[in-house]
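Before relying on records like the one below, remember that each one covers exactly one chain. Contacts with other chains, cofactors or solvent are not represented anywhere in the record.
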Amino acid sequence: MKLSAQIAKHFREIHFGGNWTCSNLKDSLSDVDWKMATTKVYDFNTIATLAYHIHYYVHAVAEVLEGKPLDASDKLSFDHPPINNNEDWNTFLEKVWADAERFANTLEQLEDEKMGAILEDQKYGTYYRNLHGIIEHSHYHLGQINLIKKLVRESLE
C-alpha cells in the first residue's frame, strides 16, 4: 500500500471512525444539534468553532493537494459563519464530511515521492509533516469537542 494511501486511511479514520482511539468527528458530532454546537462554556471555544477550525485547515490543504495555492490564515481559522438553526449546522457538517472525503481521495492520488517535498513554502515543511499535522490537529481538537460536549450536556440537564 502506498504511503499516501495509508495516510489517507488514517485521515479518514479521524473523521469517520476505525482508528485506535475509537473516537471520530462524525460519531462525536452525530448527536450535537445547533444549540449544543453554539453553547459557550466558560471561556472555551464552542463545539461549532472547534469543528470549523478543524475543517478550515482540511479545506485549505485539500486545495493545495489539488494544485491550488495555499490560501489560509491562522487568524481567520476560528471565524466561522453564524449558525442560527439546525439547517445551518447540518449544512456545515455536510461540507465538513464532503471536504474530508475530498481531502482523502486527493491525498490517495499523491505519489509517495511528494511526501518529502516542501508544501508551498519552506516554513511549512514537507507534505508528510503537514498531512500528519492535520491528523494530529484534528485529534487534539476532537478531544476538546468531546469534553465540551460533556460540559454542555451537564449544563442543559
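The first helix runs from residue 3 to 16.
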